[in-house]
Amino acid sequence: MKNIEKFRQADYDIDPIYLKRWSPRSFANKDVDQPTLNSLFEAARWAPSAANIQPWQFIYAKSAEDRETFLSFIKDGNISWCKHAPVLIAVVSKCNWPKGNDLNPTHAFDTGTAWGYLALEAARKGLIAHAMGGFNREKAKQVLLLPENYQVHAIVAVGYQGYKESLNEKYHEREIPSNRKAIEEFIYEGKFKSTTQE
Predict the structure, then answer these.
(1) pTM of the model
(2) In terms of C-beta density within 10 A (0-12 exposed, 13-18 middle, 19 or more buried), how is residue 196 classed?
């Protein structure tokens, strides 16, 4: 989107990529070539993680057959738009430490960071990456043949942005970059301070 500043403005100095990244639902009928897709995974590769464990795993679907398989565990409300995405990615993490069966308490946190790196690289490449929580997690694990000690956190639709007119009309008004809370609403110095809104 060229006029991103119409919808988003930072209060403090940051790189413009943070404002440029958002989550449209409209996808153009255009393939994402493998080197470009691999660059998103390369960005995720360099995310920090506790003890450098790198618990993240990404399972992607590019072929029509694989994308249809992914749609089998995505909820209907999301299928209506994500079925047009040329790539679907399952964001997965291994839950335990590499040695032994003890839980790695930061596996989800670290994997979320890797997803964030992927999303920013997608924006830098002129792609959109829309993460979804609306899917059947147990079915996803079964279909993707994941062992018990792995968890699916999100499904991400990746591609080039299309026109909002290609979407169901109910999504038209939402096909704009969302704003964010001011930092004063979520930062605290020293200790947490409760508010009357909670």
Answers:
(1) 0.93
(2) exposed
Give the residue from 127, 82, 131, 88 showing the smallest Cα distance to 111: 131
The 3-class secondary structure across the chain, one letter per residue, is CCCHHHCCCCCCCCCCHHHHCCCCCCECCCCCCHHHHHHHHHHHHCCCCHHHCCCEEEEEECCHHHHHHHHCCECHHHHHHHCCCCEEEEEEEECECCCCCCECCCHHHHHHHHHHHHHHHHHHCCCEEEEECCECHHHHHHHCCCCCCEEEEEEEEEECECCHHHCCHHHHHHCCCCCCCCHHHCCCCCCCCCCCCC
158 class by beta-carbon count within 10 Å (0-12 exposed, 13-18 middle, 19+ buried): buried
Structure tokens at 133: 């929580």
Sheet hosting strand 87-94, strand order edge to edge: 56-61, 87-94, 150-159, 128-132
Strands 87-94 and 150-159: antiparallel
pLDDT 10s digits, 105-137: 999 999 999 999 999 999 999 999 999 999 999
